[in-house]
Amino acid sequence: MRAALRMPIAGLLLGFVTFGQATTPVTDDEVTTAITAYGDALSQGDISGLRQLVGGALLDKRAGLWTNPDYPQLLIDSYGSSSFTVRDITPDRNGNTVVEVAVEVDGATLLKLITVARLPNGLKIIDERMTGD
Fold first, then answer.
1. How far is CA 56 from the centre of its chain?
2. What is the pLDDT of residues 48-60, one digit of tens each?
3. Which of 19, 54, 56, 96 fits a 20 to 30 Å CA distance from 5?
């Protein structure tokens, strides 16, 4: 009977070690660095840089844009004179970090919610939406 109990207990422990570990929390400095790099890549139309910063479903969602030859210029026209300012950083219930970002563009302020996650291939922006969306 002892041997019969060992397997389920070992399975539970292995499951806890494999699935129960939380990822390392994202620090405020990491978030600020990622958002600054993202804003810079958008304002410069840097598709290669954006592909390095974006991950998860957002990477898939934008896949068609990466190969559009007009997309870099559209980004420059839209974000070329913009500035990105982190206003709030909040962990969410999924272990990701939601960042409220003020984007100053031509005298107007747009508020975005950008979700940052630590994925196996590094810190990535996995969602972006305007507040109110």
1. 8
2. 999 999 999 999 9
3. 19
